[in-house]
Amino acid sequence: MSKFPDYGPSIFSVMSKMANDYQAVNLSQGFPDFPVDPHLINIVSAIARENIHQYMPFSGYPPLLEKIAKLTLDSYNLTINPASEIVITAGATQAIFTAIQALVNPDDEVIVLDPSYDCYITPITLVNAKAVRIPLCNDFSPDWTAIAAAMNAKTKMLIINNPHNPSGRIWKESDFSTLEKLLDLFPEIIVLSDEVYEYICFEQAHISVNQRKKLRDRSIVVSSFGKSFHITGWKIGYMIAPENIMDELKKVHQYLVFSVNSIAQVAIDRYLDQMIIESLSPFYKKKRDYFRGLLSQSKLDLLPCEGTYFQLASYANLSDENDMDFTANLVKKNGVAAIPLSVFYDQQTDNKLIRFCFAKNEKTLEIAAERLLRL
Fold this sequence. Notes:
Elements: H1 11-21, E1 25-26, H2 38-47, H3 62-76, E2 86-89, H4 91-103, E3 109-114, H5 121-126, E4 130-135, H6 144-150, E5 155-161, H7 173-184, E6 190-194, H8 213-216, E7 219-224, H9 225-228, E8 237-240, H10 243-256, H11 262-271, H12 280-294, E9 301-302, E10 310-314, H13 323-334, E11 336-337, E12 339-340, E13 353-357, H14 362-372
Parallel strand pairs: 1-11, 3-4, 3-5, 5-6, 6-7
Antiparallel strand pairs: 2-8, 7-8, 9-10, 10-13, 12-13
């Protein structure tokens, strides 16, 4: 008997297949279509000839752990122990799965803020816990009244995503202050902070849980080299957590994947010596502004994008179709693939919003925009 009888292919697989079938421009799935940094390619080419093809320590390649500790200090003014507070993971999805498997027990409750990444729910289901899904406000800020009402003695974890996929919203200082006050009332709740777009922020700076003293000792922060360095196919990320929590995470991690790809770990370690992490936000801001400029005369209403490489758009003044039908017809009739926002909600809430990925080269964005301007 299936554990997931109602689960089928993800919307990302469905839309990408439709894009291929109809020769559409694929702005649905969140992966770049431009080349990887040549410096990184050269590093991989060189180290492939070295003797680094066997298992790494299960926590990660020690020099890379040291680099992550330095990156965290430089970015967030937080000193962490590379040996006991970091683990390299096979992407952010594995990190999220590991954290939930390690810390959430049957009948526990986990608060998830919708619209939310689809991979949060599956591991909660697998441990026989309950996902309590709370919609964000209309502007995609946290609904603190609803979150507070949902918290109780059974609440084991709160999952937050900042910068937020799919909205591109970034939490403000006031959001964290409210969260801290609320969690003072529930000292057992653990925060799982998905920060995979932490280095892709625009006008407003990203605030990490790593910067919050009141949250640091009860939180797990998930990061992604795949997202930051546009190497999504490498499936490599990491978790940061205090030692007492990390000990539990490592118990699951070592039996789930044991250790992560050795070449990828060594390559990223050396790449961190060359690349400038601060260059990522301007790089993607240029793409965001270019895409928004191309669509400035369209009939789509573009929502604010504060971070990530996703742009939400309302088509409410164009069609009364639900967002699933609208995106299907957008592929078939207009040759552009996007993601309907309703799939990110528990109740498939349809607000006539769709999500585009602008992590594409300029030609791709130009062709997509030309077609969208015909709507």
